[in-house]
Amino acid sequence: MTSSFVIAVDGPAASGKGTIATRLGAIYGLPVLDTGLLYRAVGVLSLRAGRDLDDAAATAKTAAGLSADLLEDPAFRTRAAGEAASRVAVHPEVRAALLAFQRDFAGQAGGAILDGRDIGTVIAPDAPAKLYVTASPEVRAERRWKQLTAQGEGVSIEEVLADIRIRDARDSGRDAAPLKPAPDAVLLDTSEMTIDHATDAARRIVEAARARWTAS
Ligand code: CDP
């Protein structure tokens, strides 16, 4: 048995990975890290500091100065923050500055759950359980539109779909830790699933992985 039980939950924007990670955390009593929030924070805090999002060195400085107590800001949940996050996330320097925090979180003795884009491929390649959560761009756009509308952002579904397509292309096409399933990740397409159904499916995947991990 390897040291601790880590669940890696990766996937594109609004695929349901965050909700699934949170629910798995409640089921298994494991701490959950939404790693997208780190990139969102770097994007928004860089803009607030007047830093150019295309400037790798400047945005890496923001990343190096990030601490857990800075993460509780509703501004990080906006549409603009998602866009800023994916722009700073292309810089290897930014990713490197956020690596130790994520690896430390994953290394906790009791185990952990992390959701993001590169958890199963880069942050925790030895994680015993890996899920790649996806859904069609149209379904993801509708989900994200509902969230943004509930937060009071005035935006159309078409605009959200366009954002999602741009972000998918940028996240998958970048050289540094591109969005892609780890070879040993189990794919979970939630397009036709309610969140309860998706959580049940995720739980079954994790149970199978845990049985293998315990036996190893
Ligand atoms: O919630 P949503 O799926 O829209 O995005 P998020 O998980 O909050 O991530 C925002 C952006 O951060 C993504 O589009 C990625 O560009 C970047 N990100 C990343 O590169 N690596 C991660 N592990 C997590 C997020």
Description:
With 216 residues, the chain is of the alpha/beta class. 54% of the residues lie in helices and 11% in strands. It has nine helices and five strands. Helix 2 (35-48) packs across helix 3 (56-64). The mean pLDDT is 96. Bound molecules: cytidine-5'-diphosphate (CDP). Cytidine-5'-diphosphate binds at residues 13-14, 18, 35-36, 39-40, 82, 85-86, 89, 116-118, 167, 171. Cytidine-5'-diphosphate binds next to helix 2, helix 4 and helix 8.
**What overall form do the CA principal axes indicate?**
globular
Number of domains: 1
Return residue spans where pLDDT drops below 50 for at least 5 consecutive residues: none
The CATH H-level superfamily is P-loop containing nucleotide triphosphate hydrolases
What is the SS-derived class? alpha/beta
**What distance lies between the first and last C-alpha atoms, to the nearest angstrom?**
5 Å
Identify the CATH class.
Answer: Alpha Beta
CATH architecture, please?
3-Layer(aba) Sandwich
CATH topology: Rossmann fold
